Amino acid sequence: MGTSIDPVWLDAFRQVFSRCRIGDDESVIVLAEAGSRAVLIELAEIALAQLGHQYYRMVLPTPASVAGPVVRSSGASVALTAQAGAVQALCNADVVIDLTVEGLMHAPETAQILQSGTRVMNISNEHPEALSRLLPDDGLKDRVKESVKCIRSSATMQVVSDAGTDLSVNLKSANTVGVWGWTDRPGTLAHWPGGLVVSFPAAGSVNGQLVLAAGDLNLTFKRYIESPITLTLEDDYITDITGAGADCALMKDYLASFNDKAAYATSHIGWGLNPAARYEAMTMYGRNDTNGTELRAVAGNFLYSTGANEFAGRYTRGHFDLPVMGCTITLDSQVVVDNGVPVQ
Ligand SMILES: [Fe+2]
Fold first, then answer.
1. How far apart are CA 232 and CA 318, in angstroms?
2. Which chain residues have CB less than 5 Å from ligand 1, an ion?
């Protein structure tokens, strides 16, 4: 698939930036690292220039990977590690167009940047064709906001499926955020593509059984699961993993390789709401051409994730995002996803 500039992609970038309502007097930094996707930098800068915005590009070295497990799909860029001057510059800006490979969503420096009032528009490391298929709109924003409201006003979440999932989540003190794909408010972060709601439960809130059936996904490995895996969850932690085949072997080995109990814990739970996100998308792009954000947003998936959850006081490097299809999600007594279909 080619990556020379396509006018459709450029138009998509202009539309998303327009939704960010960048003022004439606002300063913009295009944040990249050595490993960033060049075509995205080019598209962002041309779009900003066409819209008449002043910007400059900041490019950081991509830190070398440390020994041990290969970390992917964490949403926690390490590009700003020990780069206090760069962080300060980002704090001084009004808008950061985040083109780091992993994104600043869960980077340790992000809280400081947001607290300064800077808004961060992350563009996921996807092929621009995928981005332009997944343009956010007002309807998506409304659906996401409605879902956030539902979770925040509920005490419990139940998730069941024909495949055998039966999970209960205590939502008391959970921290819930919605992402619809752009940000126009100071001190907030959004990512494009968007269209999902995620909740970080407090410690000791998740119990039951999660069954990953054939056709569900592991986005760290960028694989559709082919043979079922059953995860037993006790007080947030995976305590047992059973199954046959490569998917189960990979999951067991990878989690063990961190030698860290927190790697087995729940990070976030939620569901996808973007009707434009395609379930088959991961089959259509080379591994280096997708970061899998589209699959996180597929309407009606149940997105279960392992790894760090700062709201439960747990930090770890590993992170699985696991979109599970065909689930029924109930908040208190309200069904919000019925057998894999959002109810709205
Ligand atoms: Fe995640």
1. 19
2. 305, 321
